[in-house]
């Protein structure tokens, strides 16, 4: 499976690239190809030091769309509209949203767009793509800590059963992640809102990399 990450140079994008590239072809995308190249070199170095296999290439965000079966949007949610305007060819693709719009005051507050969630906005902007919300609640630091297993629950929701199934398989291919079918994309606001909750817990309870495991 070829997975491309738009905004793959960020903390979460690089973390996902480190884990996913061990058993999938992964493209790190950026607005600036040289930035993708630098992120790729960092990931390759970390993987080589540990003697882990990888299949990883840098490209532009448009290169991600052109070459990937699954496209991950890993950018700040407020930049969604502007980013999509610059891209062509997303029709028919499975598109993952892991974006969690939030604002920080004296605590972190979920701040969804008018559509109800970042994933619902993405689906509205891309009516011919199959949007799946997934990987929303895993901290970047844990993706990047290759010496530790990733043992979180991953809530997955979508209005497209085939795309949801594909993404659930992708989830299960990573370390000890457990995928859970959370239903249609209308459920995505609840999934996105978990992230400000766990960040507040981490901050006020003085914990690090808090995530969720449902059982
Ligand atoms: N950090 C976490 O622990 C975490 C966990 C779960 C979900 N998330 C979600 O994942 C997404 C990415 O998080 P992150 O922490 O990796 O974010 P980030 O580092 O702030 O941004 C990720 C990438 O987005 C691109 N970007 C930044 N500003 C942009 C703009 N104006 N237009 C287009 N692209 C822009 C940049 O890539 P280029 O400059 O290379 O184009 C940047 O490296 C967010 O929506 C967040 O809610 C984060």
UniProtKB/TrEMBL annotation:
Entry keywords, A to Z: Oxidoreductase
Gene3D superfamilies attached to this UniProt entry: NAD(P)-binding Rossmann-like Domain
InterPro entries assigned to the protein according to its UniProt record, in alphabetical order: NAD(P)-bd_dom_sf, NpdG, P5C_Rdtase_cat_N, STEAP_metalloreductase
Any one GO MF annotation of this record: ferric-chelate reductase (NADPH) activity
Matches recorded under SUPFAM superfamilies: NAD(P)-binding Rossmann-fold domains (SSF51735)
One Pfam short name: F420_oxidored
Pyrroline-5-carboxylate reductase catalytic N-terminal domain mapped to chain residues: 2-101
GO biological process, one term: NADPH regeneration
Keyword Oxidoreductase: yes
GO cellular component, one term: plasma membrane
NCBIfam families in the cross-refs: npdG
The protein's name: NADPH-dependent F420 reductase
């Amino acid at each position: 499976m070829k997975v491309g990450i738009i905004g793959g140079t960020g903390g979460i994008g690089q973390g996902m690239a480190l884990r996913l590239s061990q058993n999938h072809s992964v493209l790190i995308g950026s607005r600036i190809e040289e930035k993708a190249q630098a992120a790729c070199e960092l990931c390759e170095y970390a993987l080589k030091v540990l003697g882990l296999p990888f299949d990883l290439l840098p490209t532009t965000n448009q290169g991600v769309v052109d070459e990937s079966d699954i496209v991950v949007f890993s950018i700040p949610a407020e930049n969604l509209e502007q980013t999509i305007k610059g891209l062509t060819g997303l029709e028919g693709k499975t598109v993952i949203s892991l974006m969690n719009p939030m604002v920080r005051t004296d605590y972190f507050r979920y701040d969804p767009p008018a559509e109800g969630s970042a994933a619902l906005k993405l689906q509205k902007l891309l009516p011919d793509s199959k949007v799946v919300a997934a990987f929303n609640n895993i901290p970047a630091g844990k993706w990047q800590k290759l010496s530790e297993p990733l043992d979180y629950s991953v809530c997955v929701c979508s209005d497209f059963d085939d795309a949801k199934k594909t993404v659930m398989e992708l989830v299960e291919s990573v370390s000890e992640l457990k995928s859970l079918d959370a239903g249609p994309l209308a459920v995505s606001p609840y999934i996105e809102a978990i992230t400000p909750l766990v960040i507040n817990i981490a901050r006020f309870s003085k914990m690090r990399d808090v995530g969720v495991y449902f059982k």
